[in-house]
């Protein structure tokens, strides 16, 4: 068993972010050659990611507010309690709307073999 706690949020620049730095709390663990990462990410109004893919499965659980998740083929509004699963290699983005009046937060879980690979594409 591996238990990790992240008690404080911090801002950090990430290559997948379109606008300002991410507000995030994160943990990471490794077992049997697989890496599992988790973080709570907060998008302020108008903030979102670029299109990107992961080498593994990414699961999002919406914890606060309303936001957007999208693939090349469809875009969905999501809200607190929604669970979103992006299969390995699926091009997607997620974030807040331009006209939002509050933040949008989700916890992500990313399970990948080895070091994993994030591929950052263009902005939506």
Please characterize this protein's 3D structure:
The chain has 124 residues and is an all-beta fold. It has one domain: Jelly Rolls (Sandwich). Helices cover 0% and strands 53% of the residues. It has no helices and 11 strands. Strands 1-2-3-10-5-8 form a 6-stranded antiparallel beta sheet, with no helix packed on it. 19% of the residues are buried. The N terminus is likely disordered. This is Cupin domain protein. Pfam families: Cupin_2.
Features:
single chain, 124 residues, mainly beta, Jelly Rolls, six-stranded antiparallel beta sheet, three-stranded antiparallel beta sheet, 11 strands
| Proportion of residues in β-strands | over 45%
Mean pLDDT: 78
What is the β-strand count?
Answer: 11
What is the domain total for the residues?
1
Low-confidence stretches: 1-6
- Report the end-to-end length measured between terminal Cα atoms: 39 Å
For this structure, the CATH topology is Jelly Rolls
CATH first level: Mainly Beta
> CATH superfamily membership, which one?
Jelly Rolls
Radius of gyration: 14 Å
The largest sheet is: 6 strands, antiparallel
Percentage of residues in helical conformation: under 10%
SSE blueprint:
Blueprint: E1 10-12, E2 22-31, E3 34-43, E4 52-54, E5 57-64, E6 66-71, E7 75-79, E8 83-86, E9 92-95, E10 104-113, E11 118-120
InterPro entries: Cupin_2, RmlC-like_jellyroll, RmlC_Cupin_sf
Protein name: Cupin domain protein
Organism: Natronorubrum sediminis
Short précis:
This protein is mostly beta strands. The protein has strands at 10-12, 22-31, 34-43, 52-54, 57-64, 66-71, 75-79, 83-86, 92-95, 104-113, 118-120.
């Amino acid at each position: 068993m591996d238990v990790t706690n992240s008690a404080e949020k911090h801002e950090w620049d990430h290559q997948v972010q379109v606008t300002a730095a991410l507000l995030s709390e994160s943990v990471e663990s490794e077992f049997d050659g697989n890496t599992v990462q988790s973080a709570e990410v907060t998008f302020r109004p108008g903030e979102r990611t670029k299109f990107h893919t992961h080498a593994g499965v990414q699961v999002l659980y919406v914890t606060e507010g309303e936001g957007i998740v999208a693939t090349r083929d469809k875009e969905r509004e999501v809200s607190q309690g929604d669970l979103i699963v992006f299969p390995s290699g699926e091009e997607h983005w997620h974030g807040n709307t331009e006209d939002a009046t509050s933040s949008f937060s989700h916890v992500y879980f990313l399970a990948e073999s080895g070091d994993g690979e994030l591929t950052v594409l263009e902005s939506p």
